[in-house]
Amino acid sequence: MNQISTLEKANIDNLTRLWQAASRPFNGFWETESYNYCFIPGSGWPNKLWFKEALTLKRLNLAKEEILLKAPSLNIPYWGKSQDEIALFKKCGFVISSEQVAMYKHLSALLPFESKLDIKRIRKEGDIVKWSDIYPKAFGYVIHKNTLSETVENIHFYLASYNNRPVGTAMLFYTDNIAGIYGVGIVPQARRKGFAEQMMVFVLNEAMRNNAKTAVLQASSMGKNLYTHLGFEEQFIIKNYKTT
Hints:
By secondary structure, the protein is an alpha+beta fold. It contains 7 helices and 11 strands.
């Protein structure tokens, strides 16, 4: 893989440590010499495999065998820039399932915040169930409520409600002075009301209150314009591969 900057490494470290934090309570994290992976049965997340060393055909084939054996739905995120390594995925029969843009924003002063949403960090079982129920409506895959129950102290989960009805989710995960923002989603029937931006401003202010100096995230094509509007800058592309 190509060399990466300190800030790019901070984004990747926050992301991979989040996956580890989510999967460790379920004995769902494994390390090998060339790659690590996470898998929680019955959940659509994190379920990822990522490489620690430069890709070779042999290493990629070994990873593919691991995926097919344990979890055919496992995704391999690739944040390198080598065209030779990218070509190996095609040669091994992988296809791109999605792409994301890694982004960052340096944090300074709290942002003006006005919202009709009731946003709170959740810890109680009833709120955990609500969060887990609406998350797949926004993202199309499940984060099981047990994942939340086991990790609410390390991963900050937020639930947004409008007129007493849950409409949105968000996560914050801290590594050193880096705040990773994840899972910011609004259910389809509540979109186009400015709620996603309100959620983002809320979690950015929360991050600053927790002494974070930089926020990082990985944007889908749908969310990228919002993050750019809020002052985030692009870093690199993440290609998510799956087996055919």
